[in-house]
Amino acid sequence: MKISMKLNVSAEYLFQRLVDTVIYDVKQETGQELTVADLNGLSYATKLDRQTKADLSVIKVVPDQSYHIQVETDGYVKREAYELTALAADLVQVEYSEQSFAKRQVSKLKEFFFKPIAQSIRRRNFMKLLKEIEVGY
């Protein structure tokens, strides 16, 4: 899934909102207080919900430009990439891409049937989230 969108916020502001979630999650899970400089190559265990444990890895961090993560559970691996291009002081182009890979045959079957619906919902929710970030700017 790929989403491209322009937002009326600075690249710095949007980047910070994106990485704040991981920084907060790391503090909740490990007690460590990290900065953006500490994120590159970081891996830690977290919970997605009450039953689902995941390993989250920060693959790439370029402040105010790029943020890539990988989430791995027992059933799937998901990679997310955010590429930010500052077009003006308060205008940024966001390029979001997501790839999912099912590990188990049952997960592959579920993915085959439900992926189009799930992608549509995730796309709508992600665009809504970006708009909320823009409104909060």
Number of domains: 1
Mean pLDDT: 90
Total number of helices: 2
| Sequence of strands across the biggest β-sheet | 1-6-5-4-3-2
Helix content: 25-40%
Backbone shape? globular
**Major beta-sheet overview:** 6 strands, antiparallel
CATH homologous superfamily - what is it? START domain
Distance between the termini: 26 Å
Strand content: 35-45%
Per CATH, which architecture? Answer: 2-Layer Sandwich
As residue ranges, the low-confidence spans are: none
Write the element-wise H/E pattern from the N-terminal end onward: EHEEEEEH
Task: From the structure above, extract its key features.
single chain, 137 residues, alpha+beta, Alpha-D-Glucose-1,6-Bisphosphate, Chain A, domain 4, six-stranded antiparallel β-sheet, 2 helices, DUF3284, DUF3284 domain-containing protein
